[in-house]
Structures are given as C-alpha cells and as structure tokens.
Design goal:
The complex is a heterodimer. By secondary structure, chain A is of the alpha/beta class. Chain A has helices at 40-48, 72-77, 95-109, 117-128, 148-162, 178-191, 230-239, 241-249, and strands spanning 2-11, 14-24, 29-33, 53-62, 65-66, 80-83, 90-94, 141-142, 166-170, 197-202, 215-220, 223-228. By secondary structure, chain B is of the alpha/beta class. Classes of the chains: A alpha/beta, B alpha/beta. The complex binds adenosine-5'-diphosphate and magnesium ion.
Chain lengths: 250, 482
C-alpha cells in the first residue's frame, strides 16, 4: 500500500529525513519509535502533504500513485488520514459540521452522493461510541476547550467516521492517562481490518501493550535504523535508544 | 436669492413645455450643486415648503464644512460639482438589454450566490417587462402591514402621505448639519425608506428594502427614517446580498432610528456594493451616517452589519442611549479584500441611567486591504451605572493587509463599567492544513474558518440573511489565501 524509498526531506533548507525506507502493506500496523527530534512528525507531515516540506530525493508510492505532487485534500480523499500530535482549535467552527464537510468532500471525490443530515447523524452516533467521546463535544467548536485527552479521542473519532485506508497516528498516546489510553487503543483496534494500514508514531512502548503492531521501526536522525517485531519495542524500553544506535553503527 | 428662484421657475417651466409627464425619462439636471438645484429637486418631488427650507439650511451649513480627513482611508478628492444631483428613473434603453451585456464577473457571482435568473436580471439592471415574484410579494406584504397599522413606504411617499410624522422626526437623530456627508445628504436626498410602527405593535414580518428593489431605485443620497412607537418592535433588513450594478461612485446615506419607551429596533445590513476591480479601480465610496436614538425608557436598538462591498466604507452606526435602562448593540463584520478600505465602528453614547451597550466587531482583511475599527464609548456624567462591553477581533489573511483599532473611551461617571477586549490573528496555516487533511478544499476551509470567526455576529442576523451573508463572504474572499 505504501512504499517509501530513500526519502530525503528538507525543512527550511535543513535536511530532516535522510534516506528513509518503509513499506507498509494493507492490513498491517507499523509502529515507528524514536527519540524527540528524530523526524517522526516530519514523516507524518510529508505523507499528509503539508506545505514547507521539500522532497529532495527518493519517492513515496501510495496505492500505485506517486504522492509527491498530490494536494493534501486529495490525499485525504484518497484515504490518507493523519491524527495530529497537536490537534488545532478552530473557534466558531462546529466540530461535526466540519466533519460532515469532510465526509461529503470525500464522497463527492469517489462519486457518491452526499450524506444528508439524518444519515450523517446516524453515522456519528455509531462511531462516537467507539471512543466514548462525550456527545456534548460534538457540537462544540473544533477542539476548542477540549482537554488533551478529548482532543486525541476526537482525532480517533474523526478517523472512525472517515474510514481511511492509511491512518497515521502521531503520538496519539502522549499525554493520555491509562484509562484514556485504553479507550483510544480499543478504538484503534476496532478499526483494524484487512484493507486498512495503520502507522503508529509513538515514544513509548506502553501503547503497544494495547495495540499490538506487526512491525516496529526505530527512526533515528532521519533514517530507519532498525526494524523488528513487538519484542524490539520492549528491548528498546529496557536498553534505550543508545543500544540501537551503537548496534546500527556496528 | 430672488434671481436664483427665478432660474428655477424658468427651468421648471421649460420642463413643463417639454411635457412633464411624458418626457420624465429625460429629466436629469446638469452636474453641479447650488440652491437652484436643491429647489429643483424639492419641487420635482412636490415637497412642502418646510422641507425645502430644511434642505437649504443643510446646504448652507454644508458650504461651511470641510470634508473629514481623519478616517484611515485614502482616495482622490471628490469634485462635488461634477455630480448630477437629480436623475429620474433610468430609461429602459439605458440599462443592458440582456444578461449578455452584463459584466460576466458579476454574473458569476450571482451564480455562486444561487440567485435565480430573473432576479439576476433585476439586480444587473437589465430592462425586463415581466412582473416579478418579488413585486407581487411586495403587494401582499403591504396589505398585511396595513392591517397591523404599520407604515412602510418610500420616503417620498411618506412626505406626501404622512408629512406630520416626517416633520416630527426627520433630522431629530441626525441633525441636518451633523457632519459633512450628512449635511450633503440632507440637502439633496432623493428618496429612501420610511417606517412607522404604532404603539404596542409587533411588526408582523421582517421589513426589507429588498422587496422595493423594483419600485424605487433610491440612488446615491438615500434617506431612511424608522420610528418605533411605545412598546413596539421591528426588524428591518437593509439591502440585498447580491452586488448591485451601480454607476454612482459616491454614496452618502443617512439612517435615523427612533425607539420610544419600551420599543425595540433591530436593523440588519448586508452591504455588498461594487468594491472595484483587483487593482482597486472603480468601486463605490460609501460614506454613511447611521444613528439610533433610544429615546424612551427600556428601549433597545441593535445594529448588525456585514460589510463586504464598496471601495471605501466610512460608517459608524451609533446609539444614543437617552432613556433609562436602554440598550444599544453593535455587531459588525467588515471584510476588505484587494484594495478595499474600510473605516467603520460605532459610537455608544450613554446618557440615561442603567444604560448598557455591547460592541462586537470582527474585521477581516485580505490582499492589500486596510481595515480600521473606530469605536467611541462615552459615559456622560449623569449616566449612573452604565455598562459597556467591547470585543474587537481582527483576522488577517496574507501579509500585505492591515488592521487597525482605535478605541476611544470617555467615562465621566465613576459608576461606569467599561470592558474592552481586542485580538488580532492571522488565519492559521495550521487550521487550514487541519481542514485540508480531512479532505476539505482550501477554499472551503478558508470559508469555514472565516465564518467561524464571524459566528457571534452572524447569529444576530435573521436566518436567511445569515445564510446568504456566509455565501457572500466566501465569494468576497475567494482566492485570498494560497
Ligand atoms: N518547521 C520546522 N522548521 C525547522 N525545523 C524543523 C521544523 N519542524 C521540525 N523541525 C526540526 O526537524 C527535526 C525533526 O522534527 P520532528 O519531525 O518534529 O521530530 P519528532 O516528531 O520525531 O520529535 C527536529 O530537529 C526539529 O527541530
Ligand atoms: Mg513529533
């Protein structure tokens, strides 16, 4: 589904990703771990098509299409979803009004008729249960006055409604207490299926107790320096990043 | 003066020789302004002497006045002798013959706003003979209003049919010599709207000039007078949400509102005149004086405006809070794009006891536009326990535009509570990207964010108006980001 080859990315003329390779197949969950500043969010942003990130070398192939020239909204309609590390507040814009616009933009793109108000509300009611989001948050302004945990849950709720093919969760676990973490993990797990791939960007292996990944990658200084399975995350926690660093250097 | 009056007589006589009624389409006076022209206008409109005197007095004041230069706007000097101050309704041959002759950009806008074809023709000034829905609707409305005792007619009609009311209230809120443009308007106004709501009457519908669009083209010096008698309520919608084709460059309107004891007036405007092209050429200069007088106890006047048009807007809808416990409100969205300039705001003058005022101003600038908010809150010495809350937010799109805030607060009574909050923000790349990452186009995302920013004002607009105002905002800001 996703095939990244030798990806080099600069931000403000500074090279952040320095030859990153990653292959993710449909149905898989990949965890990307790495210390602060290693380029995890950069990768997430590049996949989502954020402005200001220049691909200087390498390629990103998504479902047989070259992503590099594709506008962010088109990527979204093609099924790429990014759960933001820091979801932004949009004052005055109703949370589910925005979501409805998003759903219908996607439906229009794939040639389906827009959902009417009733159909959309039914969809919302069904999905809101997955992440146990308080219903009163639905009609507030997007993320405005939400607690940190509520913002993260709102991201997963949006993901559930938009049903992406490829979801990238950027540190969705940070700042969550254990109960909130479990709820988010359950939500994500319920969205796992054969056709959907998920990339979990995380700092802590704790999340992987609840969402068991197919593969774990260590991103360090703009490159994936080690890949493995669930055990790699545990070992990382035990031995720290220096261990992989020295092993990679060896 | 004698010779001048004589001139007018000969002029009128000459007209008469040509056949006053049959040749009405040709009577437009030559450019220029003097007492003869004013007398000519008054005569044409068959006005009583007192009104002519009133106009002349205004004119003489105007001659002594100087054009204000304090506003944060720039434009070449206006030659007031180069304007024709009276023009009969346009002939059918003057307008475009069909929509093919209308500026395609204007039509594109109409389409985006979802305006039906026959109304597009109406707005674009295309000569059409068919009877429109809106005209028949207007007739039905008139009957319903008459049943309630509400008077709603053109200003000219009011001068003929209800001269005592006009005489009692005209200029009682905005005196003829109030300011340069108000004085000019008082001297040469040609038409406008008049509305009177009798005691203890709730006006049975929203009053809208929209329904008179075909009946009277009110021209550049419009005059509106609304009187809400004791215990009455009226909601008045000014204008129409589509950009009007208009050849007049200078507009100087006056609006006067009077609310007596326990009366309430809600006045909503969506102003969307031609702003000029992308380089700033053409476009309307809009210099308006709008003032509401909360004359009675417990009265309330609420201004809501959405300003997206005009090249230059100079406008400060104000409230005189004379009655004890009276309430003044001002909710405004002013949008400027390209080379538009807007200097708007409000004045809240607290005179009575326990008077309250609220000001919510949202300024949006894009392109090279300049947007200034100017607000005065004055608490006079006798105004015990007056309260004001002002919130003034600016949103910038791009980095070539400007926003300026000039709050003036004068409190002469120690019991006053005045609160002022101001913010300036740039439309966030983060917010845009967030929406786009969810599949929403950039244009829709900008729309959504801007509408969110304006929400507190839009919720004050009557429903259908609010929907149209939102669409209009989208059209105005198209291409402003990215
Ligand atoms: N907009 C930016 N301008 C300049 N440097 C940036 C920008 N965004 C991120 N960086 C730098 O890129 C590196 C990687 O950042 P990021 O991808 O956010 O790391 P992570 O998510 O792994 O913590 C860091 O050194 C960070 O300082
Ligand atoms: Mg990060």
């Amino acid at each position: 589904m996703l095939n990244i080859k030798n990806l080099h990315v600069t931000v403000d003329d500074k090279e952040i990703l320095k030859g990153l390779d990653l292959t993710v197949n449909a149905g898989e969950v990949h965890a990307i771990m790495g210390p602060n500043g290693s380029g995890k969010s950069t990768l997430a942003n590049v996949l989502a098509g954020r402005e200001g990130y220049t691909i200087t070398k390498g390629s990103i192939d998504y479902e047989g299409k070259d992503l590099s020239g594709m506008a962010p909204e088109v990527r979204a309609r093609e099924g790429i979803f990014l759960a933001f590390q820091y979801p932004v507040e949009i004052p005055g814009v109703n949370n589910i009004y925005m979501l409805k616009a998003a759903v219908n933009a996607k439906r229009e793109y794939i040639g389906e008729p827009p959902l009417d108000a009733v159909e959309f509300l039914n969809l919302v009611k069904e999905k809101v249960k997955l992440v146990k989001l308080k219903e009163e948050l639905l009609n507030r302004s997007v993320n405005e006055g939400f607690s940190g945990g509520e913002k993260k849950r709102n991201e997963i709720f949006q993901m559930a409604v938009l049903e992406p093919r490829l979801a990238i969760l950027d540190e969705t676990d940070s700042g969550l207490d254990i109960d909130a973490l479990k709820i988010v993990a359950e939500g994500v797990n319920s969205l796992r299926n054969r056709d959907r791939a998920i990339i979990l960007v995380t700092h802590y292996q704790r999340l992987l107790n609840y969402i068991v990944p197919d593969q774990v990658h260590v991103l360090f200084d703009g490159r994936i320096i080690k890949s493995g399975h669930r055990e790699l995350a545990l070992k990382l926690e035990e031995k720290g990043y220096d261990w992989v660093k020295s092993e990679a250097a060896a | 003066m004698a010779t001048k009056t004589h001139d007018v007589e000969t002029l009128v006589k000459k007209e008469y020789e040509h056949g006053f009624f049959t040749d009405i389409e040709s009577d437009t006076v030559a450019p220029g302004l003097n007492e003869d022209v004013i007398a000519f206008i008054s005569r044409k409109k068959n006005e009583p002497d007192w009104l002519l005197e009133w106009r002349l007095k205004a004119y003489r004041h105007w001659l002594e006045m100087e054009e204000p230069r304090w506003a944060h706007v720039h434009y070449p000097p206006i030659d007031f002798q180069d304007i024709s101050y009276y023009s009969a309704p346009k002939t059918k041959q003057d307008g475009p013959k069909s929509l093919d002759e209308v500026d395609p950009k204007l039509l594109e806008t109409y389409e985006k706003l979802g305006i039906p074809l026959h109304e597009q023709k109406l707005l674009a000034g295309v000569a059409v003979d068919a009877v429109f829905d809106s005209v028949s609707v207007a007739t039905t409305f008139k009957e319903k209003l008459a049943d309630a005792g509400v008077i709603f007619c053109s200003f000219s009609e009011a001068v003929q049919e209800h001269p005592e009311l006009v005489r009692q209230y005209l200029g009682s809120v905005v005196p003829a010599a109030d300011n340069f443009y108000a004085a000019l308007n008082s001297a040469v106004f040609t038409d406008g709207s008049f509305c009177y709501i009798p005691k203890n009457t709730r006006c049975p519908m929203e009053l809208s000039t929209y329904f008179r669009i075909n009946a009277s083209k009110t021209g550049q010096f419009e005059r509106t007078l609304i009187v809400a008698d004791e215990g009455s309520y009226v909601s008045y919608l000014e204008g129409c949400t589509a950009p009007m084709r208009d050849e007049n460059q200078l507009h100087a309107a006056v609006v006067e509102l009077v609310a007596l004891d326990n009366a309430s007036i809600k006045y909503s405007t969506v102003q969307n005149w031609y702003p000029g092209d992308e380089e700033g050429k053409g476009g309307i200069y809009n210099f308006v004086t709008k003032r509401g007088d909360c004359r009675g106890v417990n009265s309330r006047i609420s201004w809501t405006q959405v300003e997206t048009g005009s090249a230059i807007t100079w406008k400060y809808p104000s409230c005189l809070l004379k009655g004890d416990n009276s309430v003044g409100e001002f909710y405004s969205v002013a949008v400027t794009n390209n080379y538009q300039q807007a200097d708007t705001g409000t004045k809240m003058i607290h005179i009575g006891k326990n008077t309250r005022s609220t000001i919510i101003s949202k300024g949006i600038s894009a392109g090279h536009a300049e947007n200034a908010y100017r607000g005065l809150v004055r608490i006079t010495a006798k105004a015990e326990n007056a309260r004001n809350y002002t919130q003034c937010d600016s949103l910038l799109m791009g980095d070539k535009c400007g926003a300026h805030t000039f709050p003036y607060i004068e409190a002469k009574n120690a019991s006053a509570q005045v609160e002022h909050e101001a913010t300036t923000s740039k439309i966030g790349d983060d917010q845009l990207f967030y929406c786009m990452q969810r599949g929403i186009s950039e244009e829709d995302a900008v729309n959504m964010i801007v509408n969110g920013f304006c929400k507190e004002v839009f919720k004050e607009l009557p429903m259908e108006f609010a929907v149209e105002a939102q669409k209009l905002l989208g059209v105005t800001l198209e291409g402003a980001v990215g």
